[in-house]
Amino acid sequence: MKKRLSGVLMSVTSLPGNQGIGTFGQAAYQFVDFLKETKQTYWQILPLTTTSYGDSPYQSFSAIAGNPHLIDLDLLAQAGYLDRAAYENINFGDNPEEVDYARIYEARRPVLEQAVSGFLASENGQALLASFEQAEQSWLSDFAEFMAIKEHFGNRALQEWDDLAIVERQPEALETYRQRLADQITYFKVTQYFFFQQWTALKSYANEQGIQIIGDMPIYVSADSVEVWTMPELFKVSADKKPIFIAGCPPDDFSDVGQLWGNPIYAWDKHAETDFAWWVYRIKESFKIYDLLRIDHFKGFSDYWEIPEGSETAKPGQWVSGPGVALFDAVKRELGDLPIIAENLGYIDEKAEKLLADTAFPGMKIMEFGLFDTTGQSFDLPHFYTSNTIAYTGTHDNEVVNGWYDNLSEEQQHFVDKYLHRIADEPITQAMLRTLYATVSDVAIACMQDVLDKGAESRTNTPNTVGGNWQWRMLAEDLTPERKAFLTDITELYARTPDEQRKDDM
């Protein structure tokens, strides 16, 4: 990782456009151009994986497969697979600043089905699909079959399927469903081809412009996932693949009952027996599509909060030791040194701090956490930062700066203003970003909502809630010349421009 660089955190779903959700189309390329113009180096995104109930990218049907909502319809039309008339008059949402996931889910499917038909009928379609199937044989067929069977059972979760034989993947049942659902299985394979073809092209363009992609890997997978279906031995689940324990976090200052995430807990002893082969594979697959990788909930590798399934709150849970540095030693043996970022937020004890030190991965620092403390003694305050860190004002799980500041007490606001040397009439977002870019941290990442000076309504996610999250979208007109100029100015002022641009400026 290069020293003193910067970037922007922005979910692909939040890009502007007329398809109801951000996609890999024109607006994504324009966002890359904006990053280059303002002399950034990184585009940090949220997970690109499929979403289910609650629309969270951290609850996916697959650790590998991509979210078909992000497939750009205009690019499919340009490729000759789709007639624009098939989607140009569809209402994908009434509010251009919010994703209406229910409407997107219903409206996009018939359009994508037409594109799949057009692709399969094209001159090279069958050959392209065969090549993609060969390249992605480690996961594609399992995923497509899982999704087709899931649809067959009314999109119910794996644990609620009516046919126990297919839940258990009995050979005769598998063959029966493969024949019965052949067309649907092909649909899921082709849409994955669309996803990866478009994402690969976008990432290549970003890299050509000097922009690197920071991907995001959730630590856990969903109970309703192809991984639990095909490799249940890697999870603490019963014979019918129901979780015995679930993940979450204990009560803390943010919640007196803790958080129930619902993900199944890993059977870490089984992972260790294979020298963590699945984790090596998962991380290797991630680096095929990202340049750097943020691993979510890094604390869970030192020890994790294990909650008995059926608990109404997270209180009955207990701390259980995780795999520790052995997992990352195995990854390093197989894949070498990798640019990994550890999301070391939340309850971080000595054990978690030692794991971070043993891996030497950069951790994260959140300015909002430190500036709550008016004593000036919080280690989340910038004057305590070290260089091997990634600094943020907040993340997708925190309030945007304007909402955060408005909820502070008068005493806290006074401390914040004084600490930031905020001048009269300076927007709090600019004062925070200015201080963020001035930190000693090697990398500073600005949330796009703060760059745009958006209000509390633009918050991406409120943890431990379902509904109303992951919806925010920017408007193209929000990105004014003045906002671009400010971001460029602080990037240059605090020596965060890429090396080649620094040379050009000399």
Structure commentary:
GO terms for molecular function: 4-alpha-glucanotransferase activity. Helix content is 40%, strand content 11%. By secondary structure, it is α/β, with parallel strands linked by helices. An eight-stranded parallel sheet has the order 9-6-3-2-1-12-11-10. A four-stranded antiparallel sheet has the order 5-4-7-8, with no helix packed on it. Strand 1 (5-9), helix 1 (26-37) and strand 2 (42-44) form a beta-alpha-beta unit. Helix 5 (140-152) packs across helix 8, helix 11 packs across helix 12 and helix 17 (428-438) runs parallel beside helix 19 (481-493). The two termini are 23 Å apart.
Topology:
Layout lengths: L4 E5 L16 H12 L4 E3 L28 H6 L22 H21 L3 H11 L4 H13 L11 H4 L3 H10 L1 H27 L3 E6 L8 H5 L14 E5 L9 E6 L3 H6 L3 H13 L2 E4 L7 E6 L9 E4 L3 H11 L4 E3 L7 H10 L3 E4 H4 L18 E4 L8 H6 L3 H10 L8 H11 L4 E5 H4 L29 H13 L5 H7 L1
Parallel strand pairs: 1-2, 1-12, 2-3, 3-6, 6-9, 10-11, 11-12
Antiparallel strand pairs: 4-5, 4-7, 7-8
Helix pairs in contact: 5-8, 11-12, 17-19
